[in-house]
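Case study 2.
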Amino acid sequence: MADWIALTARAGRAAHDLVGWLMWDPEAIAAYEALGVPNGMGWIQAWRLAPLGDVTPAAAAASTYSIRPQIVELIFSAWRGTTDPDNIIAVRDAAIESGLATIAPGLKDTLAPLANDLWRGIDTVHHGARPLFAANRARTRPDDSQPLLSAWLAGNCLRELRGDNHWLLCAAADLDDAEVGLLHSAMVDISEYGDEEWIARSRGADDEAIAYGWRRLESKGLASNNGLNDEGRRFRYDLERRTDELTAPAWQAVGEATTRAFCEAVEPHHAAFVARIDETAGPRWMPAVRHRPTNAYT
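Prediction:
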């Protein structure tokens, strides 16, 4: 019998690899800029938020959670009046196959056949309080002539489901956006990031927000002296486990064989995906695809 929590965690890591490179893809950014967006500003989140349609920046910021609302406001201001969500999504979709062919040659042969099974699992999930997942699922899907794009979109949809589930748990724990970023430092190699504040600052938290975040975490017993304590690290690892628990039913609906096949298709290309991010964005970006220290807090 499958350990569905472990298998869901594995699939989640594979989905991060499959999707994360797109945030800094030069081809996509150039096409986004060609829509009239100065310097392609904000592509890193514009393509993720576009499936929500013409929502307010405040609503979009609520769905991305750990990114400061002011950053989301800037992203929306860059494209509004110049283009629209459908055009942004078209740019995203046009970049997928060529990007994957460059980064992960051969992935198409193993990933594309999984599309229908992935969507079948996705269609079993209820939409409640899962805005990015629901928005992506509602989009028109590619036909059988584009199986790789279809499989990528399904993997992205499952990744957004995991993200929505994670934010549900963060909200239930009364974590603000800076706290979320500070806590995530428990999941990475701090020697690579330099300190526990880098991730929160990369998402727009300033000195005031960081200081307030530490005070809030300390009031909850999760930090001491502007740093995570053992209880904070234990809490963050447990948050990860509970996220996988919430997401596991979707992968169970996909089926064990297809879930394993998804992981086995993507995992051999992990180093290539990380190298692509290092090349286009720089080291440390997309912490979800990088080394995670062993959980010593169970």
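The two ends are 23 Å apart (CA to CA).
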